[in-house]
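Notes from hallway chat w/ T.B., transcribed later so I don't forget. T.B. wanted the structure written out for a chain they're using in a teaching module, and asked if we could keep both sequence and structure tokens in one place. Agreed to drop them here.
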Amino acid sequence: MIWEIDEASRSIEGLDERGRARPEYAASLGLVPAPFGRRALAATIEAAVYVVLQLPMLLVALPGLVALTASGAQPTSGGLLLIVICAAVSTVLTTAYVMTQLALHGRRGVTLGKAITGLRSVNVRTLERPGFWRGAVVRALVLWGSFAVPLVGPVLVIALSPFFDGERRGRGWPDLAAATWFVDVRRGLNPYDVKRMRIARKTVATDLQDDRSELPSLATPVGEQSAAAAYIPTSRSSGGVLGALRADGAAADEARPDIPLTGAGLAPAQASPEAGPSVAGVPAWSPPAADAAAPQPSPVPQAGPAAAPAAGGAAWVPPRLMPDAEPAAPAGGPRPSPAPVPAPSPAARAAAAPSRQAPSVPAPAVPTPPVREASATLTLDDGGVIEIRGSGILIGRDPASSPGDPRLVPVALADPSMSVSKTHLAVIRAGADLVAIDLGSTNGTAIVRKGVEHPLTPREQVALRDDDTIRLGDRHARLRIG
């Protein structure tokens, strides 16, 4: 199958609702408009080189033709040959010079004068190369056409038109026709430095996303939050503390049936002594608290069977105490109805009521079985192996220690393409499970399970399974548990 990329559907950053380039976006990237003085100096240098290449024509060929025409004498073979040679040399050198200038301007946004003065030309909308035909040829035709009106044309088109630019970028009429813009690479960013330009675009995009995000206040009482979503502080960014909305467990499971979330087993407040680590402000895992409104069974010395693990491998939940089993129904007959329990008398209820002075007797503690941490490793696409030790690990190009739990081990991941963020992903232990959390990475994280890729929402906690493949930007890692 052949895949075709539709270049017309490409999204261009830095445009307003009318499709015009926004000067403030280019300024946020670090691009500086070219000063008028150096633009004039670059044009003077290029014109001087053009005149030097025309000297054989101006000094030898043209005067010789004028003398022959005025005298009307028969030209000698030697004099005629000299005139032809000088004219040919000037024509060939000038043509080569002009074509080289046009090609360099269209492909690299630079000419001889611009290279000497530290200027570059870019397309004003895409901030990339201007293009050969419109960016170079059209602009040159407008410049040369201004000389059709001696003195007035060059002064108006070249010298005065940049001062009429409403955006104050110094773009004259030739630049408006060619959709070009000149920038200063000595005082600002070089738009043809691909690596620095990509980092600048990512930085601006991240800052804009942080500024536009509406984050709830950390001082909001828990009682005022809706039952459908709860605020969880997750990490810090240039705009402050980031938070995530934790959806209800049933809704989250319906939205992502293949990857079970651990939201139902996360307590946003206190954690139990057996709780696992917290990452970047995310509260540690703890078993779900029982509903206070639900009736509690009477404690008995003998405990029932342990609750089954939750879907997707949730951590072990303490077993609920069950009442004595009912008698089995006889074979082939209906189950006998239980004997009615007589209602207690008022005297019995008064005797059973707890006394104000009598100390309360705590319910017998339910023993918690020990949790064995299974060994887990991540095998990278380049053959490297990362062992998940202790509370968990932080993965990125230069991961910083987690402010929520400094016990997480930072693991630096080499990525020449810069697709992996500095602090990209956290893999932590939540009881007997492993949980993956995307820490607001630029290029995102996804889990590939059974050939299906599931992108992770930033700050979302997703339980991992054996043989899962984690995609971090352009890098991949395969999980092995046990």
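Follow-up for T.B.: The first strand starts at residue 119 and ends at 123. Might be a good example for the class.
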